[in-house]
Q: What sequence folds into this?
């Protein structure tokens, strides 16, 4: 019989023992989530936009910038490069008048894998750039061959040695035609950042079409860039002489929105999400409907009402946008662990994005993985346990599963989760969860 200690007793025990760790969530499951939440700004838009401020003279004010450790890391990189950066509430202001460096130290690069998105901007603005090779991460090897091939085509000289990239631009980057073998989000962003101030026109074929690409191009065009076709497979960037900083509002985070929807779904909840873009959830909404949830939305809000018992989502195949987002795979899988029937996942984007499966099984889920395929057979219920977040979205999945589980679930490794979710326990407690960070 599973011994379930009352939440309060465990909390007092933890406090008395003084074994308060710094990055664990204690989740008391089976509370129905009801109420409303405002979704924070998109991490994967704020990061490239902050990098883009380097290209601009003067001051940029980036509003709706989420409070995340990855954003903090980007701010540290901008400050290290010499920019004056100030955060006031949800606004990060960047002044590049004192920009003076072109190298990014190893520890800052390692803090955030996606710091590779600074390469195009630094090299374009400063004429050279030196940064360490961003290591692989929890999702498997994270190659940057597409980034480097495209930047070399634009005239950047890139020497790779001892884990470092030493880049220089002899004269000025030159526009050219680039065909990406895969619609890489990061590579598309780096090319756009390098092409905005290049000489001549750059055409990117098979470009990534994610909403975050459109947000980046919207910011750059507001600064004086000439970028056409963002959101389509072919983007044209006409290089200009100069960009001037301006104001920008980061789009809402579609992955955070999806994550909160799965949390409401697994707890039989009724949740109103404010500040969402339903268009960005076009592949996600039908899956919640297939699972038996009732969804209603207008142009900025979405309400999800969950059934007492969810139905399985038969097939979830991750694809480049506008396909089902790989970042939503783990939270969606957590939802299907307690849905009636069999759900089949195919992870087509990353080589190793099932590290959360073992931890979900510790909570009582029934999941089998064969290569890129994961087969989830819904179980009547999950049981609280101690689990460890393997990566950002895997951590979110464990939190969602903990909300559904009977009893107490302890999720450690929160440093991963804090990269992409703003004070997640505050958001969840706001809608009826019982979650505490110890
Ligand atoms: C961005 O990563 C996001 N990160 C990821 O979100 C997201 O999962 C991914 O796009 C796909 O949508 C940010 O925007 C900061 P890719 P990125 O380049 O740019 C291969 C999260 O949880 N590839 O589109 O690194 C690569 O190995 C994070 O918020 C190459 O082979 O993704 C992967 O298999 C995780 N060579 C696939 O392409 C390259 O040069 C997609 O990568 C580049 C990528």
A:
């Amino acid at each position: 019989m599973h011994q379930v200690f009352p939440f309060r007793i465990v909390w007092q025990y933890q406090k008395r023992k003084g074994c308060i760790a710094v990055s664990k969530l204690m989740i008391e499951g089976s509370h129905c989530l009801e109420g409303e939440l405002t979704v924070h700004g998109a991490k994967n838009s704020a990061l490239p936009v902050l990098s883009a401020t380097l290209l601009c003279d003067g001051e940029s004010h980036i509003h709706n910038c989420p409070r995340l450790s990855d954003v903090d890391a980007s701010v540290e990189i901008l400050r290290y490069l010499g920019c004056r950066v100030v955060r006031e509430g949800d606004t990060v202001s960047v002044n590049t008048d004192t920009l003076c460096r072109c190298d990014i130290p190893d520890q800052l690069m390692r803090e955030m894998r996606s710091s590779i998105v600074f390469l195009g901007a630094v090299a374009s603005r400063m004429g050279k750039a030196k940064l360490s090779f961003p290591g692989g991460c929890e999702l498997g090897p994270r190659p940057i061959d597409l980034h480097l091939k495209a930047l070399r085509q634009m005239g950047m000289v890139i020497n790779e040695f001892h884990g470092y990239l030493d880049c220089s631009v002899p004269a000025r980057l030159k526009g050219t035609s680039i065909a990406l073998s895969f619609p890489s989000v990061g590579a598309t962003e780096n090319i756009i950042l390098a092409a905005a101030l290049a000489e001549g026109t750059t055409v990117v074929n098979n470009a990534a079409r994610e909403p975050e690409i459109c947000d980046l191009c919207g910011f750059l065009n507001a600064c004086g860039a000439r970028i056409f076709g963002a959101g389509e497979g072919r983007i044209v960037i006409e290089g200009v002489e100069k960009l001037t900083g301006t104001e920008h509002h980061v789009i809402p985070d579609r992955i955070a929105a999806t994550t909160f929807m799965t949390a409401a779904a697994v707890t039989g909840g009724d949740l109103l999400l404010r500040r969402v873009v339903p268009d960005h959830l076009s592949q996600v909404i039908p899956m919640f409907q297939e699972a038996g949830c009732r969804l209603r939305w207008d142009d900025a809000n979405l309400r999800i009402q969950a059934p007492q018992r969810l139905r399985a989502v038969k097939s979830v195949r991750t694809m480049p946008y506008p396909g089902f987002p790989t970042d939503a795979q783990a939270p969606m899988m957590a939802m299907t662990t307690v849905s009636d029937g069999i759900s089949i996942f195919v992870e087509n984007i990353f080589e190793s994005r099932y590290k959360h499966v073992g931890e979900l099984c510790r909570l009582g889920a029934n999941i089998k993985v064969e290569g890129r395929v994961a087969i989830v057979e819904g179980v009547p219920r999950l049981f609280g346990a101690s689990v460890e977040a393997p990566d950002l979205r895997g951590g979110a999945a464990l939190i969602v599963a903990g909300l559904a589980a009977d009893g107490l679930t302890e999720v450690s490794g929160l440093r991963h989760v804090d990269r992409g979710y703003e004070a997640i326990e505050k958001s969840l407690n706001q809608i009826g969860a019982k979650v505490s960070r110890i």
Notes: The mean pLDDT is 94.
